[in-house]
Amino acid sequence: MASLRQLRNSLTVTWVTVLLALAIVASPAAQAQTFSVIHNFTGGGDGALPEAGVTVRGGILYGTTFGGGNGHGAVYAITHSGSDWVTLPISILSTRGTYPVARVVFGPDGHPYGTTQLGGSHNAGLVFDLIPPLTICKTASCYWKENILYEFQGGDNGAEPLFGDLVWDPQGNIYGTTSAGGFDGYGTVYELQPSGNSWVQTIIHRFLGPDGISPDNGVVFGPNGGLYGTTEGSLGGAGTVFELTYIPGVGWQHKLLYEFTTNDAGGLPRAGVIFDNSGNLYGATSDAGAEGGGTVFELMPSGNSYTFKLLYSFSGDPSCGPFGTLTMDAAGALYGTTHCEGANHFGSVFKLTGTGNGWVYTSLHDFSGSDGQYPTSKVTIDADGTLYGTASRGGSQNMGVVWMIKP
User: Fold this and answer.
1) Strands (DSSP E) found in 93-218
2) Which helix (H) or strand (E) holds 296?
3) In whole angstroms, how far apart are CA 55 and each of 43, 78, 135, 229, 239?
4) pLDDT tier at 11 (50, 70, 90 boundaries)?
5) DSSP code of 13?
6) Dihedral Cα 264, 341, 44, 97, nearest 10 deg
7) What 3-state DSSP class applies to 260?
8) Measuring CA to CA, how many Å separate 311 from each of 298, 323, 355, 360, 381?
9) What pTM was estimated for this model as a whole?
């Protein structure tokens, strides 16, 4: 049987292939069932409290934990070893960056990139990437190198990036959001441009309050090259959907696409937005709506504006709806998690299918506590249709889980 050192070496040599080894913490074999827990976090080197979802690359799952490791969070990889799932920490975050709540995503150079909510020289969070070892590991404790791209300074510079994925433009510049900082602490949208061996930050929008407060979940590029996202709050209402368009010689211009007012449309959109192939936007709110537990909505382009359409209302307690951004499959169905909806009020995994008579809701799993609770992650879909995600609490150690749903 392969050793831990050989497992780390396999990641070093080719981390886009299936690893054949056992690690510090091995989960039980996945059962032949629809839903299964593939890792229970222990709070040790594997991490604890996974707020973010996972990224799938080459059959390997990569993710982050808010806690565990040395107490500041961890980055982990999960892979098959025969019929078992194996979890391997690939980075134990230092005090330079603490408490990641966004997942890692792979950049154009093939490295995983991410953010931490706090840490850095101003304790305002940072942007990092991980570089695999260039040589075969000779010790069991051989971690990927944590490379700091940028440290937020707070104030006008922005602070505390939360759930959003980083995104890249064709020139290799990185875009993201901070939930705080900027004017009056209402958050920012920023750009990082490579400059030699460092990165230069430009704030492309500082939220003022009426245009939104706390962009928690990042931005995405639209078909027109603009950036789109949500804010959890606003001075005049309960959150917004916004667009940022670049005008040569002028810069990035903000446009308010929709503002929530905690009515039947929903409120507090912690989740970001996604596009379909027709240019329609989809998102979710965690609160309000006709049933009180949040909503799923669509914004359809109509001339120079967007038309709002309510797709589904969750029943349940306030702030129990989706926190994570929705995911769309090739057939146009939407997938997500709720934070504390479901039969046991511990959260759920759901699917919404569009039909000629509206959108049909299917509960794929209701968390019970022992198999996880309070998911805040998005759903990740593998090439074979398998769904993956995390629950931030619950599981055998009450430190959170990684779960899988086979089609």
Assistant:
1) 97-98, 105-106, 112-116, 118-119, 126-131, 145-151, 167-168, 174-178, 188-195, 198-206
2) strand 292-302
3) 21, 10, 25, 20, 27
4) very low
5) H
6) 0
7) coil
8) 7, 17, 11, 9, 21
9) 0.90
